[in-house]
Amino acid sequence: MFLITTGVSCALFPGLVQAETPVLLYPSRQFSLAERYARQGRHDQAAMEYERFAALFPEKKRTEEARIRAGESWFAAGDMERAKAAADALMDAAISGGDWEPEIPETGDLLKPEAAAGAILAYPASRAWLLFSRCQEAGKETGPAVRTLQELGQVLSAQSFPETPAVHEALRDEIHWRMAWVWLRSHQWERAHLLFSVISPEGHRGQDAARIMRRLGDAAAAPRKDPVTAGVLSIIPGLGQVYCERYQDAFISFLLNGLLGAAAVRSFEQDNPALGGVISLVGIGFYGGNIVGARGSAVKYNDRADEEFLRQIRAEKDARLSFCPREDGGMIMYSLHF
Q1: What is the separation, in whole angstroms, between the first and last Cα of the chain?
Q2: For the purposes of burial, counting CB atoms within 10 Å of the CB of 228, is it exposed (0-12), middle (13-18) or buried (19 or more)?
Q3: 313 near 184, Cβ under 8 Å?
Q4: Would you call 333 helix, strand, or coil by DSSP?
């Protein structure tokens, strides 16, 4: 429980000078308030309440959790600057604060390398690097976002976690998995393939990485349009748009340029050079726009193809059937991995 005492003094009401109102704040209630705002999608209010918890109860066990949740809430609210500031503060504190103490499962079915790696990455300090990387990626800083994840891997390798080879390998695979997806979302297929290829085939991410690599092998065969070719073909108005499969735009471009050209020629033939000059200038503008537009259409075509390819990778499901023996017989499980 946290106690705040407020005093009220006023010259007009001297009787209130000694009146004091105790305000009782409970850590659990403050944290629950922030959580409720987050569940309701009121992310900016949730971030402020998490920050208030961290300010009022700096010695509580959940203070670091509140700080990283504040950053994550700012990210969800679209305020990248505040999200990066929150993550950066936690990163600095983690580097200067010594060893981390994540709650790594030690008993039961959770005693698996991937579970230990997941617990380490779920620790507030780890999530600070992940959040900072997400902010960079949202700002189209793909290279820095990947380097931030690399830095996280280096920082984690210096911590005193259980140094079992399996946990170390699972953690490394998870970092590579996240780095590969950053490149994947930016349509850098070759770089993504390289990172997926170093993920252990026997690990938790091995089968999914292999599946994505098989799909990435088809990326080179995907239809694409060359912007230079589109521009060169547009010497004949509309032909570049035909190349990019934008037939309506091709027809409009050919028609406009043809009409303007014919009108300019007609004006000069009728001894009206002033009108012919004006129409020629307008025609040159449309002709140049036809070339620039064709190049832009090729770029957009490729972007749409890349987005569709990425959508297929995300949507592809790896269906599996497995049998689990039990004392009363057994159980058949059907699972879909995304």
Answers
A1: 45
A2: exposed
A3: yes
A4: strand
Task: Name the DSSP class of 123.
Answer: S
- What is the distance of C-alpha 232 from the center of its chain? 36
Domain 110-221 in this protein, CATH class: mainly alpha
Global pTM reads 0.71
Instruction: Give 67-77 pLDDT, tens digit per residue.
Output: 999 999 999 99
Helix 27-39 vs helix 63-76: crossing angle, to nearest 10: 20
| pLDDT tens for each residue of 199-248 | 888 877 888 888 888 888 777 677 888 999 999 999 999 999 999 989 99
Q: What residue has token string 């390289």?
A: 194
What contacts 24+ positions apart, CB below 8 Å, involve 28-35?
Answer: 30/56, 30/57, 31/62, 31/66, 34/66, 34/69, 34/73
User: Are 54 and 67 contacting, i.e. CB atoms less than 8 angstroms apart?
Assistant: yes
Q: What are the φ and ψ backbone dihedral angles of 282, each rounded to 5 degrees?
A: -60, -40
